[in-house]
Structure formats: C-alpha cells, structure tokens
Amino acid sequence: MISAQSAHQALYMAFGRDQWSDLRNSVPLTLNEADLDNLKGINERLSLAEVTDIYLPLSRLLNLIVKSKQQRSEVLDKFLVNDAPKPPYIISIAGSVAVGKSTTARILQALLRHWPEHPKVELVTTDGFLHPLEALKERGLMQRKGFPESYDMKMLVDFISDVKSGEPEVHAPLYSHVTYDRITDKTQKINQPDILILEGLNVLQTGLDAQSSTNRPFLSDFVDFSIFVDADYNLLKQWYIERFLQFRSVAFADDNSYFHHYAELNDAAATDIAENIWDSINGPNLMENILPTRERANLILRKGRDHLMNQVLLRK
C-alpha cells in the first residue's frame, strides 16, 4: 500500500526556501515597505525578504504559464479566425481561516500587474458569495458559516462562468466583515481582466451544492492554476486566537460591528471565546472540507512560525 507521504512525494516537487528563492532569476522587486503595509493582513509579519524569496519566484512562474497560455490562444484564434475576447487566466487561492490567503492574493495581484503581458489583474474573494445573514439564520446555518452549505454555489459558478466566457462586465457581490453580511447596495465590477485571482475557503472544493445536478460544472472546472496556503493545525489555531484578540481594538471596536459585544473582553475571556469558535466551527471545517482539498492544488505554500514560508510544493 502506498503511504500518504510517498503519494505526496509522487505528486509534488518540494523546494526549501533557499531553493525556491534561487528561481527568482533576477526578477526586480516592484514593491516597497509602504506597499507591504497596505497589503498585509492583521497580525502578519510580512517583510520584503518574504516577497523577494517566495512571491517573486511565484510571480515569475505564473507569468511564464500565463504567457504560454496566451500564445496558445493566439495560435488557436488565428487558426479559427476568431476575434472574440480572450478568456482571463483564473488563479484560485485556498486555505484555512487565519492562514493568510488574503495577503497572498493581494501580493500576487500587485506583482502580476507589473508584467507587461497581463497588466489587468482582478481579485475577488468568495466571502461575498456566502448566503445573506438572514438566509443563514432562517436555515439554522449560523454555526456553519464557511462550511460548503453556507455558500450560494450556483451564484459563484455562474459568476466565474461569465468571467471565463469573456462577458464585458460581470458583477461580484461584496462582503462586509464589519456587519458580517453581504453588502446589498454595491458590487465589484469585473471587466474582462487578463488574470482573475479568486480567493476563499472553498475554491478547491467540488460537489458543494447537494441539490444541484451532477451535470452542473464545479468551480474548479474554470480554474487554470490553484494555490493552497498551508500550515500546521496548532499554528493556525494560535494565529486565529491572536487575530481575534487584535480585532477587539480594530474591527470589533466599530459600533456597527456584528461582534461589537466582544470589544471590551479581557484577554482571558476573549481567548476562551476564540478557542470555542475555532474548536466548534473553524477547526472542524478545516479538517472536514478544506484540508482534504489540499492535494488538488497545483502549488502548496507551507508556512511555519511567524507566518514565514518554509517550503513550496509544485505539482509535477
């Protein structure tokens, strides 16, 4: 019987941090410290060295892949005498709550925009495709928010299908982490980008809508390259608790925040609540629905302590 470790080794080429950094191949760094401050998530110790060592080689790899795809499309268009808009290249970024998916997505967006072959790079998060708060309450899903059944997967698949087919303007719903709900009076306009980055817990999952026909396409059918941001379970729990404690003076402090009642908690009480939320919601969702999708990714970014990447796994 093949072990999980040997199967993993058969699927991926593993690179240590220094090995991966060498693949940068003199790609210039186009971000400065001020840019990083705008990109990094709360409680993340992101440095220029992290961008240089990890994200510049990744942006180079993605540039080469996208450029190859564009060249192939041009050949087919010439052969078919086709002048329709070129479909965007779609990159998905998955991983646990608190692993830093959003920061990874924002950095990649900023770096990929600097390549002349694909200057128009859009970023969409799947949070906006969560069912509205009222619907979640009606269905008894408030304790299952982030689980597969809490998303409007038909809406998400229809959105990504329209983008992929080259529709001139597609609207993505937006989400407020203050009100903990979908925004009803504003959307994100997507106008035929060169690259679309789709970030969320669920972007590598399949069969999410049990009510849909088995003939219905999955989100993964539209994705060209997938990334999974990974870390040990205990680190993820620790980072979630640390982030929760910091939110007391940031997001939770807003009078309009759905979690405003947590703002005045002391460290011990806030830690207890954060641990309970992790143990009852985020941890089970990670183990049941998110982690099992990891080996579907084209590339896995492994984080160690201090949110620093220590290994990159690239599918063979």
Give structural attributes.
316 residues, alpha/beta, 7-stranded mixed sheet, two-stranded antiparallel ribbon, 9 helices, globular
State the gist of this model.
With 316 residues, this protein is α/β, with parallel strands linked by helices.
* Distance between the ends: 21 Å
Oligomer: single chain
- Widest sheet, order of strands: 1-9-8-7-2-6-3
Our Rg estimate from Cα atoms comes to 20 Å
Mean pLDDT: 90
Strands, helices and their partners?
Elements: H1 4-11, E1 12-16, H2 17-21, H3 33-39, H4 48-80, E2 89-95, H5 101-112, E3 121-125, H6 133-138, H7 153-164, E4 170-176, E5 181-190, E6 195-199, E7 225-231, H8 233-247, H9 267-290, E8 299-303, E9 309-315
Parallel strand pairs: 2-6, 2-7, 3-6, 7-8
Antiparallel strand pairs: 1-9, 4-5, 8-9
